[in-house]
């Protein structure tokens, strides 16, 4: 008996949980739902009374302030899911307002299992007539009212070269569904340096738009640095969206029937008022840095022997337009051999802007024994948070060369200007002109019977086999179709890039000429004005022409380099590399097109 009692006690929690779940399943709900809480006097209102269990003696409210156009109509939905029955019954009314004002739709009642249940009363506001009432709205109008693409700009009045963020959000009303979308036109961001922040996943979140509840998805994020003061326009992003819109029809189970339509939505133009940097207090060495930065000059060592090397690093770290200004150059003694700097960037872009560090690393090799001071250098920047300029000075560094030859002049030249060396002459610098030329009389020669005579006589016999060999070689070249295509493509590439080659070493002129060459090539090849196209459109166009992905990426990459070159330093080696890449890309395009 004790064991039976113990067994019952152990089952008691399970019985209690089953009882609670059964009670929840059997809980009766009776609710009133309105199609909208605010409407024009020329619109229609749909009122639904929904219960999860069938009942009797349904009693609707009197609908004061409204006229009943249709109803009550009934819809019943019943289903079994995992052994659990789901039931829903709805009484629907379509009402027309009779006057303006605020009206209360009072409680409705119904008897379920012998008990009376009542819905909650709700208030409706009736305003003046609207331009297009909801009963006259078609599917497209309904989608327009419930779908919005918004460009949220973090700051509309930034300073020149101050970061602003643009986030593109697609707001979707809970009453409609979005099944697909594709971009129609991406903004070009003229007069801005732009950096995209990739959206890894599309996550729907709850939000509000103009005071109403919506779900929204972040589609695109970009950080912009204005490169010009005054009013600048941000071009709109446009999308083609496939939307499922509810209709007034119901299916067999009482659920709403949806219809599909395509809508074009645009974020609209946004105007940014860019403030110029103040001239008051502007340092003479200001190079365009805008943000909040730290500055330092360091060396890998301060004591070494002659012919050994050390690294001097000029570094700026912090947050701001790190990719849009050049670092100051250290003034080093002319007795030190200094190589061109290696530029390094460790930069990441977030919604707050660009953050990280950039540096120039100089390799220095001393030739003579002695002490060489590296003077302090200054770095100036404008901080938009304080609206003022700041200047940071580096510490002076002393390089001590312990062992090595001594400067022949007996002292170490620490002046950072070039040293002039005296010219030492070797050998005889002046020679006398010969007064006696020792000329001899030229002998008389006859052409007939001479070596030249026999050479011209045998020349036709020599040319005949040579002509045969050349003819065979020409036929072989003509039959090499693939080789001829490659040669033709290479000639075409050299033709379009000839202007760029002439300006190698001149950054701005070179990249302008190369960008023009790339667009002119597509213009000539495809008979289109590619200068009006975005990079995405050019990529799509080449993809339609069955150009391989590697060649398309190479072409788009060159266009991006041309844009980046306006604001970033490029060495002559990088220009030569881009020129070689451009020749290869144009040649590959010509073969495939």
TrEMBL record:
Keywords assigned: Membrane, Signal, Transmembrane, Transmembrane helix
Q: Does the keyword Methyltransferase apply?
A: no
InterPro entries from the entry?
BatD
Pfam families in alphabetical order: BatD
**Residues spanning the membrane:** 453-470
> Any signal peptide, and if so, which residues?
1-23
On the tree of life, the source organism's domain of life is Bacteria
Keyword Transmembrane helix annotated: yes
Protein name in UniProt:
Protein BatD
